[in-house]
Amino acid sequence: MRKWKTLTTAIAVCLCAVSAIGYKSVHVHATEGSYYVGGMTAGFLLGAGGIQIIGFNDVRTKDGERSPARDVGLCVGDMIVEIDGVSVTETAQLNQILERCEGRALRLTVERNGERASVEVSPAQDRDGKKYKLGIVIRDTVSGIGTITYIERETGKFGALGHSVSDEKGTPLSVAGAKVYLCSIIGVNRGCRGKAGELRGLFLNDKTVARAEKITSCGLFGVFEGNYDFSYLQTVEAAPVSEAEIGEAVIYSTVDGTQVKEYDVAIAKVDAQNKDRKNFVIKIVDKELIEETGGIVQGMSGSPILQNGKLIGAVTHVFLNDPTRGYGISIEHMIDR
After folding, report:
1. For a tag on the chain, would you pick the N or C end, based on fewer CB atoms within 10 A?
2. 147 and 233 together in one domain
3. CA atoms within 13 A on the CB side of 74
4. How many domains does the chain have?
């Protein structure tokens, strides 16, 4: 039976205002190999980098209600990275420690705003005398949606998103234990001037289709499972940014269900040497896409950009003052990462 999992978009998508970009021509060697064109939306489940406190709840004890963690000064957003000197990354590890602690004080190493500190906290025994608790609401993963850009035909290696990955507070996420699922888009919050839109999606099932291996400033990378059906995907060659030109192009995106569609865009500017890897300024000109989404929305990051039948890059950012416009990264940067 297919199991549906609600997907909360928590992976941050950077938003930038329009800035002046000049055209620069640079000679770069052609990218070799052939690639499957992506465009399918995927759900990513990434490690939060530790056990993150996202709230507090009072423990009902025989002496009243209290939160031991809050009482010693822990805050929402704190990341528990060690307990009694042992590294912890999963909620299950914390639960096991609490089951064995018998009420003794635990020394937590907590990361806050990039700095670490230790604090001692004594778990509270609940009224039934069955469990010891810290009085915190926690998570060890962050979920979000994005778009697969390409898959290498020979290896099954993929690239997605086209930009760095962080949580809603800007904290970089860990690739440890990262999982990739197929995703179905069930709705769109349309973008408008001053506010980014957003795709809303569901994980289709609990079976992963790929594993993530690396997160860089150029996106998320990994390998698709060997049994994935690539037969419906288009095969193209990749082209260096030196072959890109101002004019007509297309992107591949999924904004409804699981159907990948081609949409018309225009490349307005090319900046081969941009230090932030904002190599293209693109404008959505497809009336259907504008009608459905208002332009570029969160979740479309990674949508492949093709020009003259070749893969040249991926959508990465949206302009807040004009959601029909945004930035793109060259495919060279993603492949060479």
Report:
1. N
2. yes
3. 32
4. 2
